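Example A, followed by Example B.
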Amino acid sequence: QVQLVESGGGRVQPGGSLRLSCKVTGVTFSCRTLRWYRQRPGDQREWVAQINSDGLTSYATSVKGRCTISRDNVENIVYLQMNDLNAEDSATYYCFVLGSGHWGQGTQVTVSS
């Protein structure tokens, strides 16, 4: 059974940083493409970043240059390092294993002074 457990969210001031983590079980982690999405209240879920099995990364324009996605194929964890956060980054963040159809519970990020 596929399970995704996100953590690392919280409240941070504008300009601050957070590192989100997502522990994945139930899939052959090292072979899978992994994504982060986020969803603000009242909005659709939007894609944030992706890392494939070769370590190639891509980012949404809104976070490019401020966020870094990475993966640990030993611990089966995908990370999202977020820097220079602003109010527009406030959302619930979810990780996703491409092709799995499963979502975690998300982790809340609030950027506020």
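Example B, a separate protein, is given below in the same form.
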Amino acid sequence: VQFVESGGGLVQPGGSLTLSCVASGFAFGGFSMRWYRQAPGKERELVAVIGNSGEYTNYADSVKGRFTISRDNWKSTLYLRMDNLKPEDTGRYYCMSPAWTAWGQGTQVTVQS
């Protein structure tokens, strides 16, 4: 099982980014997926969840209305669209499935003027 995240970068407050996560080694379409983030000196926190076919989504209160999680099961790819970014969104973003213990390397998002 492997997850490869990409799409992070440096963006100004109010900007947007879309993260991608390509999964391999398992039947992607059969499992729910999650995005987590970890800011320097803080614990990893759950950001968003999506059902195996996108039938439900849930978000942390801090990102609700600004972030959108989605997936393309044909491409085994998970996405996180992030709008109206704030400095407190800065951190390393990871995708994972609760069915597996594997984590990817993550992708860094930095929001600053």
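On Example B: The longest strand covers residues 17-24.
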